[in-house]
Amino acid sequence: MTTFNNITDVPGIKVGNVEAVPGYSGCTVLLLDKGTICGVDVRGAAPGTRETELLAPMNLVEEVHGICLSGGSAYGLDAASGVMQYLEEQDIGLDVEICKVPIVPAAVLFDLPVGDPTARPTKEMGYQAAKRAIRGQLKMGNIGAGCGATVGKIAGQERAMKGGLGYASRICPNGLIVGAAVAVNAVGEIRNPSTGEIIAGVRDDDGQIKECLHWMMNEKPIALLPGTNTTIGVVASNAIMTKAEVNKVASMAHDGLARTIYPVHTMHDGDTLFAVATSKVNATVDLVGTLTAEVLAEAVLNAIHSAESIPGFPSHRDLLKYRK
């Protein structure tokens, strides 16, 4: 099996991306094979979501047909309608006898201050992202939902750095495959959990990176609006799981964010993670959840390492320019 180190290594998943450039926003769409079970865990205090309630274990629908991650704040939820349109044209959806209704959960992040605030992901962009969905090598960084993503905003947008979209995967000897896709747009800084190094965060007047905790404790607080950040993503495996079990994996996956983003799940973030299982290989919830957290952390780092600078927001690649 060819490995691309992204979520499409999990059989049954395709990914498509569309950007609104130079508006600096975009959407990322995952198309899922029949029989894919989905769960979700929302940890941020200001989420923007669609169709998340139906993913609760006690509710009826188990299978989903696509997932949409989008910029544009609440406006970006329109992109999911385009994914529904595309799937309906492919005769894919929940069969309700008179028609098939595609089930497409979605989550959005806030990127309106970056570029043109009117350049939001639309229904047409969601449709095009679904149409472009592939299994194979995918670009990371300023792509899809990560196009306008930024990090390190605890001291305001003018001190922030560029975030982005990242993927990662792990293939185990027993045939278990775990993958992740994440759009990193956090109010906090990004740390490498192996070294403790801050690889993207808040810049001071000299262009040096200072810990978010320094700004929270010692500097004048910035009046951030709730929901003006948010990290959103999808974790996936080819494990055989129930709806309750895949929801537990979504919960465990947030450990990957906690290892790389500081602070995380704040009042100003709407952090949301979907988890899907394509039901091919036997594996325990503990194994899948543990690996998922590791792979998600890798995807966060890949997003930051792949990001490119845009006006007003230097990337990790420029980090040495701002350190003495």
TrEMBL record:
<protein>
    <submittedName>
        <fullName>P1 family peptidase</fullName>
    </submittedName>
</protein>
<dbReference type="InterPro" id="IPR016117">
    <property type="entry name" value="ArgJ-like_dom_sf"/>
</dbReference>
<comment type="similarity">
    <text>Belongs to the peptidase S58 family.</text>
</comment>
<dbReference type="Pfam" id="PF03576">
    <property type="entry name" value="Peptidase_S58"/>
</dbReference>
<dbReference type="InterPro" id="IPR005321">
    <property type="entry name" value="Peptidase_S58_DmpA"/>
</dbReference>
